[in-house]
Amino acid sequence: MRITNSMMIANTVRNINNAARRLSEAQERMSSQKKIQLASDDPVVATRAIKYRNYVSTVEQYQKNVDDVTSWQEVTESAIGDLSDVVQQIRTLTVKASSDTMTTDNLADIKAQILELRDEAIQIMNTSYAGRYVFGGFSTGEEPYALTLTDVGDTVMFKGQYLSLGGVVSADTDDAAITAFCSANTQYETVTAETIKYNIGFNSDVIVNTEGQNVIGEGAGTNLFDTISKLLLGLDGMTSYKTADTSTDPATITTETFSLDGLLTDLDDDYDRILKAQATLGARMNYVSRVAERLSTDYETYTTLKSNNEDVDVSEASMEVSTAEYVYEASLSVGAKAITKTLIDYLA
Question: What one-character DSSP code corresponds to residue 251?
C-alpha cells in the first residue's frame, strides 16, 4: 500500500492531538486532584462517589445533632446540679431553724434566705439553651415557672397552670376563699410525656430534654415549692396548713399539721427526685457520648473510602503529567520534521 504525504500528515496531526488530549487530561487531574471530571469518565467511580458522599454528608449531620444534644444536656445537667445545691442549702437552714436556740430575729433572717433560694430555684428551672427553655417540655418558647400572688397566698405556676392548686395554704385562710380559688383555676397534670427527640445516628433517637415536673414534682404537697411554702409558714411560727382535694366538687379542705423537723423528710424526698432526674440525664449523656465516638469513627472511615475512590495520588499524577508533556513535545518535534517535507524536497 502506497503511503502518501497527506496520509503521513493526517496521522501525525491525529497523534499530536491524542498526545495533547492526554496531556490536558493529566493536567486537569493534577489541578482538580480528582480521578474523574465527568460521570462518563468512569461510571463505577462516579456511582461510588455518590454513595460515599451521601454517607459522609449523613454522618456530618448526625454529628451536628450530637453537638446540639450534648450542649442542651450539659446546660440541663448544670441547672439540675445548681438546684441540688439550692435544696441542700435549704435543708441546712431548716436544720438550723429547728434548733431551740433560734430567736425570732434569727428565724426572720432564715426566712429571708429561704425566699431568695426559692426565687433562685425558679430562675434555675427557667434555664434556657439557644432561646429554648429546657424544662418546659414542648413549651420551649416561654418560661415554664412563675411565682404568682393569689388570694390564697404565693404559689408557683407551671406552663400557665398552677403546680399545686390546693396545696399548702396558710391555716388562717378562709375555707370559702380556698374553695373559690380551686373552682376558678386548674392544676397542671402530666397527661403524656413531652419528650423532645433528636436523631443522632442510623435509626438512633435520643431524648434530649428533662421535664420540669420530673425534677420539681407536681401536685399538692408533692413538689419542692410546696415544701418551701410549709417551711416559710413554719418560720412564721405556724404548725399547720390547709390543703384542698381538688378531685371533689366543691374541693374538700383539710388541715394538716407539720413541724420543721418533719420537713427534713420532705426535703430529702425532693432531693432524691432531683438525684433521680440527674441520674436519668447522666445515662442519656453517656449514650450520646458513645454515639459521638462511633460517629467519629464512621466519619473517618467513609471519608477515607471517599478519598480513595475520588482523589488522585499526587505523586502518580505528577509523573503522569511529566510523561504526557514529554510525549506531547516529542510528537510535536517529530511531526514538525514530517510535515515540513514536500514532494519538491524529494525532487531536489
Answer: P
DSSP-assigned letters across all residues of 114-164: HHHHHHHHHHHHT-EETTEETTSTT--SS-SEEEEEETTEEEEEETTEESS
Q: Please give the backbone phi and psi of residue 281, each rounded to the nearest 5 degrees, phi first.
A: -65, -40
Write the pLDDT tens digit of every residue in 17-52: 776 677 666 666 666 667 667 777 778 888 888 898
Are the beta carbons of 282 and 210 closer than 8 angstroms? no
Radius of gyration of the chain (CA): 39
Which CA distances in Å does 240 have to 18, 168, 171, 235, 307? 101, 9, 6, 12, 74
Distance CA 208, CA 195 (A): 8
Distances (CA, A) of 299 to 170, 200, 305: 61, 13, 10
Q: Are 100 and 106 in contact (CB under 8 A)?
A: no
Short-list 256, 153, 270, 165, CA closest to 222: 270
Identity at 305, one-letter amino acid code = L
pTM of the model: 0.81
CA distance 113 to 148: 19
- CA-based nearest residue to 197, from 124, 116, 111, 287: 287
197-201 and 204-207 beta bridge pairing? antiparallel
Model confidence over 216-240: pLDDT tens digits?
A: 999 888 899 999 999 999 999 999 9
3-state secondary structure of 2: coil
d(C-alpha 83, C-alpha 222), whole Å? 17
For the chain, percent helix, then strand, then coil, each to nearest 5? 60, 15, 25
Report the range of poorest mean pLDDT among 159-168, 264-273, 311-320. Answer: 311-320
Which secondary-structure segment (H or E) carries 295? helix 260-310
Angle at 221 between CA 150 and CA 148, to 5 degrees: 20
**3 state SS for 306-323:** HHHHHECCHHHHHHHHHH
